[in-house]
């Protein structure tokens, strides 16, 4: 076998490259030929790149050390073939060739001669033969350009005669365990695919790639929002002018950085990169989530971030893109609007406040004047004064809760437990009013992120209102269920007196109440709490039949 390999070397010197298709039948024959090929190259001063599995590698190393009588086999460079061929899926041609050239580049740069031996394996039981043929064709072109000798070894029991004949078209030589011959089917540059010649396919593919590249570049350049393009190694390969204007860093200072090294990414937002990358690797996109980013002048700006994978012509992930929309001005406008609405509410409340507080103040003033005359028992006056002062305190407390921005400390809470706690709290009042509270929970655990005490306050308010609406007793159903995959629905359904339609329209107006001791702010406060949690409140009521209040909150 050694003589045939030497004969091959002489043939290679004539053709300037050697691409060998090796179909082996036995492991012993495979190892013998591999050792002979490696040693022949070693004697000629060649390094060897071995792409094989761990079992074969260990057996080859053992045999080489025995023959050379030395432990120094530094001329042998090993790469695991499963990682090499299957990193991006079976026979992802572009990725394999790029990886192959990266492995050879250091040797070419130093002028070190090298040959390769690759044991080709695939995972898919019914691998696409056309894809395999195309891979070997591209490999042959690449090997010719490199001017090296390369063996592609296949286990013959897994390769049909038909496939073997097709593979010979892209290999100059055919080798078995016992023979080495020139391939009679080798047709360099003349391979025919099912419908088009390789030349036609290459031309069409090149034109498509050129058009796609132009479209992508146009999209990046002309986009008004910052755009970042990463390659498959998460290195920045392109940013647009909008990126430079928005964040302040020049294109030159950003290109080549790893995604985790980008200065626009705050330290406490690093997790976003890993989350976004995992989505794009799965071929999924992320659409406009809100976050913050750094600018060069040290400011944090509010942004919406979208990510999507970039696929090559073989539909494999070859990088990803990020689009960043600066919403700082929009956020500022929203904050101004909120302040404006708060001022509007304050103005709306002003007249009511003046009226509501003036009445008890007038009463207090009058009774103090009567106290001065001391013509009646003072205790009666004290009770009335205390009652009116307490009413003022209640009005002011609820007004402050409505007007003052509340700190939102959102934590994950089991709504089932929260509602059960509220029901226990309200049980005594329900019993006193002969009201039976019935729970209908879809599940025992339903978690949302919320400000626990505020949601409890809302539930207490609505349960209390329902109990008070059933003066002669009745039934209150408290229902909890999921509404799709994004929301939860809480319902309070009573069979009380109901709310007249003319009153229903006025609910939520400040200081409008039908209760003798009500302030008219309770419903307004509850509604504001739910809206601050990005939820909604709806009421359905019919006189003498009952009322249903529904709260929706995001999961």
TrEMBL record:
Residue ranges annotated for the Histidine kinase domain, each copy included: 352-555
Name by which UniProt lists this protein: histidine kinase
Transmembrane regions: none
Domain PAS stretches: 212-269
CDD domains linked: HATPase, HisKA, PAS
Record's keyword terms, sorted: ATP-binding, Kinase, Nucleotide-binding, Phosphoprotein, Sporulation, Transferase, Two-component regulatory system
GO biological process: sporulation resulting in formation of a cellular spore
Signal peptide segment: none
Organism this protein belongs to: Heyndrickxia oleronia
Catalytic activity from the UniProt record: ATP + protein L-histidine = ADP + protein N-phospho-L-histidine
One Pfam family hit: HATPase_c
Keyword Repeat recorded: no
NCBIfam families, alphabetized: sensory_box
EC code: 2.7.13.3
Domain PAC: residue ranges: 285-339
Keyword Kinase: yes
Highest taxon listed in the record's lineage: Bacteria
Gene Ontology MF terms in the entry: ATP binding; phosphorelay sensor kinase activity
């Amino acid at each position: 076998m050694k003589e045939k390999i030497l004969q091959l070397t002489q043939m290679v010197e004539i053709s300037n490259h050697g691409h060998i298709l090796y179909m082996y039948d036995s492991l012993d024959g495979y190892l013998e030929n591999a050792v002979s090929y490696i040693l022949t190259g070693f004697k000629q001063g060649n390094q060897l790149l071995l792409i094989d599995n761990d079992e074969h590698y260990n057996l080859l190393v053992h045999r080489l050390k025995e023959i050379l009588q030395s432990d120094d086999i530094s001329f042998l460079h090993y790469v695991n073939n499963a990682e090499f061929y299957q990193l991006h899926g079976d026979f992802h041609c572009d990725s394999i060739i790029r990886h192959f050239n990266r492995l050879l580049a250091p040797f070419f740069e130093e002028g070190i001669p090298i040959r390769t031996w690759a044991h080709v394996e695939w995972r898919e039981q019914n691998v696409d033969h056309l894809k395999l043929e195309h891979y070997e064709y591209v490999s042959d072109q690449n090997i010719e350009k490199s001017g090296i000798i390369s063996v592609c070894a296949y286990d013959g029991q897994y390769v049909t005669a038909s496939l073997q004949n097709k593979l010979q078209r892209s290999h100059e030589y055919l080798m078995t365990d016992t023979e080495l011959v020139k391939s009679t089917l080798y047709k360099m540059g003349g391979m025919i695919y099912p419908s088009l010649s390789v030349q036609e396919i290459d031309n069409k593919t090149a034109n498509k790639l050129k058009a796609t590249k132009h479209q992508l570049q146009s999209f990046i350049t002309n986009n008004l929002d910052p755009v970042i393009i990463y390659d498959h190694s998460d290195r920045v390969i392109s940013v647009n002018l909008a990126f430079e204007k928005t964040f302040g860093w020049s294109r030159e200072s950003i290109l080549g950085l790893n995604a985790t090294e980008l200065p626009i990414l705050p330290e406490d937002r690093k997790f976003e990169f890993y989350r976004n990358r995992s989505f794009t690797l799965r071929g999924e996109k992320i659409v406009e989530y809100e976050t913050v980013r750094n600018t060069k002048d040290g400011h944090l700006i509010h942004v919406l971030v979208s990510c999507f994978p970039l696929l090559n012509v073989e539909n494999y992930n070859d990088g990803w893109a990020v689009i960043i929309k600066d919403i700082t001005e929009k956020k500022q406008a929203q904050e101004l609007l909120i302040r404006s609405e708060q001022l509007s509410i304050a103005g709306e409340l002003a007249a009511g406040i003046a009226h509501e507080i003036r009445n008890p103040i007038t009463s207090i003033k009058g009774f103090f004047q009567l106290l001065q005359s001391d013509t009646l028992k003072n205790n009666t006056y004290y009770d009335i004064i205390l009652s009116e002062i307490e009413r003022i305190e209640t009005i002011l407390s609820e007004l402050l809760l409505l007007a003052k921005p509340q700190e939102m400390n959102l934590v994950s809470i089991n709504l089932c437990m929260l509602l059960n706690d509220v029901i226990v709290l309200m049980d005594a009042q329900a019993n006193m009013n002969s009201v039976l509270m019935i729970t209908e929970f879809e599940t025992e655990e339903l978690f949302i992120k919320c400000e626990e005490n505020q949601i409890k306050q809302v539930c207490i308010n609505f349960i209390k209102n329902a109990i008070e609406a059933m003066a002669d007793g009745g039934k209150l159903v408290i229902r909890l269920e999921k509404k799709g995959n994004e929301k939860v629905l809480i319902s309070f359904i009573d069979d009380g007196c109901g709310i007249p339609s003319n009153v229903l329209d006025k609910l939520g107006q400040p200081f409008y109440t039908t209760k003798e001791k009500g302030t008219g702010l309770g419903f307004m406060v509850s509604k504001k709490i739910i809206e601050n949690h990005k939820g909604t409140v709806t009421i359905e009521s019919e006189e003498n039949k009952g009322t249903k209040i529904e709260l929706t909150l995001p999961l």
